[in-house]
Design goal:
five-stranded parallel sheet, 8 helices
């Protein structure tokens, strides 16, 4: 089932949109604050984001700009009462793909969601992320914040393995097997240590990359601060 995230602090509107879209086989996860939505995005990308402008902890246009910097192709639709032309222009300038003014017809919203999903494809499967680190699997690009980072093939494979197992410990033995042994390159344990050190240096010593002493490594999502 297609999943979308919806930032909305009005339970009535959120429940109405959620119930209607789920009847159309679209799972809707509702978040009442921008902080909650941002943490959810850091854990897993949906197919689309529906975003209210005025939220209890900030403005949706700021989060939209952050989304666009981090995941260029992730579709975003504003659902907001702010219908002035200046607001609509500002919404698009912040990176939104569509802009729907409240009140709106649910069948029209569903049509716009479907049209945008057809154009965007499965964006959620294109990216892996943790903290400020983002990996674009389609283009094989890695970025740290707004900076694109150049990694060696081995560094890329180590990071890929860690991100695919985010939240779980990846043992040193497993990394050695998946990155080196699978290609017939048998190396000693020190090679992994050096590779991870270089990876950390290139990613500016990310706090989300944890060492589990004598066991391995773990990518761990940190709490988001405004």
């Amino acid at each position: 089932m297609t999943e979308i995230y919806y930032a909305e602090d009005d339970p009535g509107i959120a429940g109405m949109v959620e119930a209607y879209l789920e009847r159309k086989d679209i799972k809707v996860s509702v978040y009442g604050t921008l902080a909650d939505l941002k943490q959810a995005l850091a854990r897993r990308l949906p197919a689309m984001v529906l975003l209210d402008w005025n939220m209890p902890d900030g403005r949706g246009d700021g989060l939209c700009r952050w989304i666009r910097r981090t995941w260029k192709e992730l579709p975003v639709i504003f659902l907001t009462v702010r219908g002035d032309s200046a607001d609509i222009v500002s919404g698009f300038e912040s990176g939104a793909d569509d802009y729907v003014v409240k009140p709106f017809a649910l069948e029209v919203l569903h049509s716009r969601v479907q049209a945008l999903l057809r154009r965007s494809g499965n964006v959620g499967g294109q990216y892996l992320s943790c903290g400020d680190i983002t990996m674009d699997l389609n283009r094989m690009l890695v970025s740290c914040g707004l900076e694109e980072v150049s990694l060696s093939a081995v560094e890329y494979q180590v990071l890929l393995c860690l991100l695919r197992n985010k939240g779980r410990v990846v043992t040193r033995e497993r990394l050695l097997e998946q990155v080196w042994d699978v290609n017939g390159n048998f190396v000693n344990d020190n090679t992994l240590t050096v590779t991870v050190k270089r990876l950390r240096d290139k990613l500016h010593q990310p706090a989300c990359l944890k060492t589990v002493r004598s066991v391995g490594y773990r990518m761990e999502e940190l709490a988001w601060e405004e």
